[in-house]
UniProtKB/TrEMBL annotation, chains A, B, C, D:
Residues 28-242 form the Ion transport domain. InterPro entries: Ion_trans_dom (IPR005821), VG_K_chnl (IPR028325), Volt_channel_dom_sf (IPR027359). It is found in: Membrane. It is a multi-pass membrane protein. PANTHER family: POTASSIUM VOLTAGE-GATED CHANNEL PROTEIN SHAB, VOLTAGE-GATED POTASSIUM CHANNEL. Keywords: Ion channel, Ion transport, Membrane, Potassium, Potassium channel, Potassium transport, Transmembrane, Transmembrane helix, Transport, Voltage-gated channel. The keyword Ion transport applies. The chain crosses the membrane at residues 29-47, 59-78, 90-110, 155-176, 182-202, 214-236. Its main location: membrane. This is Ion transporter. The keyword Methyltransferase does not apply.
Length: 279, 279, 279, 279
């Protein structure tokens, strides 16, 4: 009944299994080679910016880059051909990254400096966990993502207050310290305030007058409390989500006494001894 | 029966709706324009302190500043006129900020440098959430505020001990390192101690002698434990408040005594012993 | 029956009330004056190390210091006389601090530079909370102390591992970077490792070779996880102690159904509705 | 019946008790001497790298090092002789460290600079807690280890994202800032990104252009949230493990099925439903 598949269809199917699948030997093989090439390509771009290496091996590096780019281009085209709904892939997160990974190289023919943008290929590496397929890791990733998602709004509110504080502090330090100490303008003062509040503290700009140092000390002690806030937010979310997902849960409500909190592994209610019915 | 409103009264009412309200189209519009002007004004003040820009565009920037200031002044007067109890507004938090936002510009006629103080206009931005009116955000702000409120006293006690430690450490390092390494006086030593304990670490002053570096190492390791304290305090409060809003909830309001906060698992009201009806 | 008190005894009693007590008007007054003098004295010592001030006002500052020292000495002697068990006071924590607060000044007659040690007077300030007597604050202090006490051992173990890591890292960086980058010896390398692991990062010594920068990056990323540990320890203790002391407790075990966890304010058991008997 | 032990066997047994045991007087004594020698040896290696000391005392230090090395060598051989299964010791964690502690010194006969590697002797110090044998400490170590173990995967996922971010940020800053500000290549840019994200902030490389400073500010504020993540992970694990060892305890071992971990409040075993007998 089923019409025999054309050669092209068989080729498309095979390609799809290799490019998108991770279960077959060749599918897995391809993914590993791909990861290797991405890594190699990123390292090549990085090395090309190191002066000593650039002077000696620039042309060799460029040739390698072009070879990898051509390989990625073919892969990109095959990915479009192989899949049923090519547009969905093209506009998906990974589809856009795959395009961004080859585009800068072709652009560099016309605009010489843009080949440095090929560094975005590192984003293709986000596929790593999908490829490695370790359930442990993906569970943990999920928990991480969930906790950050839940604390997103609180952190936004917090950053909003930090920025307002930074503007005020920056302007104050600009007035107090002035150009001699490196506070050449209010934006620079704000930059200093952020460097200080986040406890990064480069020291490229630092207060030199007694009053400036006194104010800076206040800002730092304030920064103490401030750095505690995002940590507190994220930690509370983690604690909540890990309590929820581990050890103790409220899924096995006892049918007899309605006690709700039990160990996930509990078989009998710890309140009345009735057997629990898992749901 | 009701006396027809005078033109002035209608004007006052309309003004009030536009200035204070956020529900009508014009009220919302006005708020957005206001936020835009505040932002613009703050950016203008900041740019005016950048040397390159100041030299070229100082007079243009100044004119813009004056236009915005006049607008803010009219708005301030209208706010006083429109409201029933003008004094309450004048001495409220936002009232004072609104005044502070226009005052420095007028002062700068007499004292040239004071126009930089117009940067306090950024504080008018604190209205943002009130205007945007996102329930999610205001709930989160409330939780943030509550957690910080609850940890206020502990953090004060903590800062008090940090300051005493900083004085002792600062004096010690002044004695050990001396003027050659930049520890020119005890206050400078204290400044260094705070820079170190908060892990900011500018490096404008750093120990140079072996003994000084050894002591600094001890201080830094001590600082490890110390930075953990405010984080611990705030986190514990967050965890508590988020646990409270979880395992403990306000869903099962008691029908008899109206007590709202119960364990999610509570069957009887813990205030009056009445059986709770789950919803 | 009671023998009339001698004049000396009355004087002793009066002195005791003023020096040790905080309930009477004069007792409180004395404490406040004392705190003021301590603060003044500490500020004087600090100012005396600032070059500009030292040159101009050294003798005036010295006279003030001596007056305060004599006052403290009299106070110290009176404290010994007034109390029943003088030895217990002398060897108590505050007794030793009180002695340390006056000793350096007398020592400075023979050893000129030692008067800087009078800065330890700041420790007398630890009495502040005892004097102010705010129950809220002392409750919080207690909680802080308890949480730190409980995490003491874990933090010791942790610091022990940090120091071993710092030694290994320091030696490694000394070998990799060498004298040119400022890693002049292994102890200096260890100093750098501690500066980096604690995220202080002065930048007085920083890796200059590519390999050194690579290793430093690894150390910093490791430091990420490491700084999380003391915070985690302290936070967990805080969370535990604040859960224990607040809101929910296990004090009011239900006599009928033995449910243990209730709100502190609960009057009826939330499991069976029986009235709770506070203990 | 038992054949009399040969002199060699008695010697082996005695040696074993002294070298491996910590209960007998001589066993304990030996351990303390060993710790002392390790510490001394590490300090000697460190001092030998300090220029001033190296010039004057190099030969003396070297002789001491050799004496300690010979002592350690004899100890190592005796440890192999004394134990029943020498291979298990040789390839155990401590066995390898013990070998590494003596090897570099012998290697330095042929390769002069390698004697610095004797610093790995510090690892022998990891035995400290085993020797001191404080149950409190070893319990805490266990909890620390367990919490870090549990958060291992989450932290790996996290570091993976941090590295990808650092690559992108580093490349971006290289493009924006360029060689003038010290961003001489993308690897250097990545190094800077890690220095900034971890809030170490040496300041050896720091942005100089307004755009660079703006981007750096964004990175730092991002770093805020980022540093919260490992702390959150570790803290949540600590909180969980300390909650588990509290509200949940191992006091009520089930008499029937030997299940050990129950809620403190459990009345019936959650494994087999048998009533628990409180102790």
């Amino acid at each position: 009944m089923t019409t025999p598949k054309s050669k092209y269809e068989v080729f498309r199917e095979q390609t799809k299994i290799i490019l998108y699948g991770t279960n077959t030997f060749w599918g897995r093989m391809f993914d590993l080679v791909l990861l290797g090439l991405i890594l190699l390509s990123v390292i090549l771009v990085m090395l090309d910016t190191v002066e000593g290496i650039n002077n000696k091996y620039h042309s060799q590096l460029l040739i390698c880059e072009w070879i990898i780019t051509v390989f990625f281009s073919i892969e990109y085209i095959l990915r479009i051909i192989a899949i049923q709904k090519p547009l969905r892939y093209v506009f998906s997160f990974y589809g856009i990254i795959d395009l961004l990974a080859i585009l800068p190289m072709y652009m560099s023919i016309f605009f010489p400096a843009t080949n440095i943008l090929t560094i975005v290929r590192i984003l293709r590496f986000l596929r790593l966990f999908k490829i490695l397929h370790i359930p442990q890791i993906s569970h943990q990733s999920f928990q991480l993502k969930e906790a950050l998602q839940a604390s997103k709004e609180k952190i936004l509110v917090f950053i909003y207050f930090v920025i307002i504080s930074a503007v005020i502090i920056g302007a104050l330090m600009y007035v107090v310290e002035g150009r001699e100490s490196g506070f050449t303008s209010i934006p620079v003062g704000i930059y200093w305030a952020i460097v200080t509040l986040t406890t990064v503290g480069y020291g490229d700009i630092s207060p030199a007058t007694p009053l400036g140092q006194f104010l800076a000390s206040l800002v730092m002690i304030m920064g103490y409390g401030i750095i505690a806030v995002p940590t507190g937010i994220v930690t509370a979310e983690f604690a909540k989500s890990s309590l929820r997902s581990n050890a103790v849960s409220t899924k096995n409500t006892c049918k007899k006494c309605n006690a709700q909190v039990h160990f996930d592994s509990a078989k009998y209610c710890h309140e009345c001894g009735t057997e629990l019915q898992k749901t």
